[in-house]
Amino acid sequence: MNIIEDFIPKNRQNRPGVAITPSSITVHNTGNVRKGADATMHASYIKSTNDKVSWHYTVDDTNIIQHLPINEMGWHAGSRKGNETSIGIEICMHEDIDMAAAEKNAQQLIAYLMAKTSIGEIKKHQDWTGKYCPAVLLKEGRWEQFVRGCFSIFEEKKNIEKEHWAKTYYQQLIDRGMVIHEERLDDPITRGELFAILCRMLDL
Ligand SMILES: [Zn+2]
């Protein structure tokens, strides 16, 4: 499973930068049936819109695109609590999509997120506001089946993808150009290593 990171720029109003600790994942269908309304199209929309709308991932039959870090709030649930506690995933539904493949991709993503975090709850957009969403899954009566599929993939993934709590900090340092040769997340640090890190932090 390959996730394409294409974040909304930080200065956009639909990326408020509010830190969240998500406890659920909320599933949507885009509601957009136009031909070509795939994940790539939604990624360019969400980066340029002035609407107060944003979510974390868009999934179609070939791509998974991430628009926001999972620890930042988006505006997708229609309720404050939903936005502040839930990761939003939009599944495309354009006329030329392979819907089964898109839903499979979404299930893979959800299982991956559950394995990576401690999130154990999958919600419909409808659970927050009553909106008829995810419309395709609801209309075709496949919501329960979809959720069961997520959990069974999760059962396969959970032991291999559970991330160490410190991994995110390690990755942040790498991203900022800090050279660290090994992760060894549970090994003790020596005084020498601490001195070296402090000097690097202070840019000495
Ligand atoms: Zn929705």
Automatic annotation (TrEMBL):
- Please give the biological process terms from Gene Ontology that the record holds: cell wall organization; establishment of competence for transformation; peptidoglycan catabolic process; peptidoglycan turnover; sporulation resulting in formation of a cellular spore
On whether Cell wall biogenesis/degradation is a keyword of this UniProt record, the answer is yes
The N-acetylmuramoyl-L-alanine amidase domain, residue ranges: 10-141
- Annotated InterPro entries: Amidase/PGRP_sf, Amidase_domain, NAMLAA_amidase_2
Q: Which PANTHER family does the annotation name?
A: N-ACETYLMURAMOYL-L-ALANINE AMIDASE AMID, N-ACETYLMURAMOYL-L-ALANINE AMIDASE XLYA
Q: Which SMART domains match?
A: Ami_2
**Which reaction(s) are listed as its catalytic activity?**
Hydrolyzes the link between N-acetylmuramoyl residues and L-amino acid residues in certain cell-wall glycopeptides
Q: Keywords of this protein's UniProt record, alphabetized? A: Cell wall biogenesis/degradation, Competence, Hydrolase, Sporulation
Q: What is the name of the protein in this document?
A: N-acetylmuramoyl-L-alanine amidase
Recorded GO molecular functions are: N-acetylmuramoyl-L-alanine amidase activity
Q: Which Gene3D superfamilies match?
A: Peptidoglycan recognition protein-like (3.40.80.10)
> Family, per the entry?
Belongs to the N-acetylmuramoyl-L-alanine amidase 2 family.
CDD domains per record = PGRP
Annotated EC: 3.5.1.28
Name of a matching Pfam family = Amidase_2
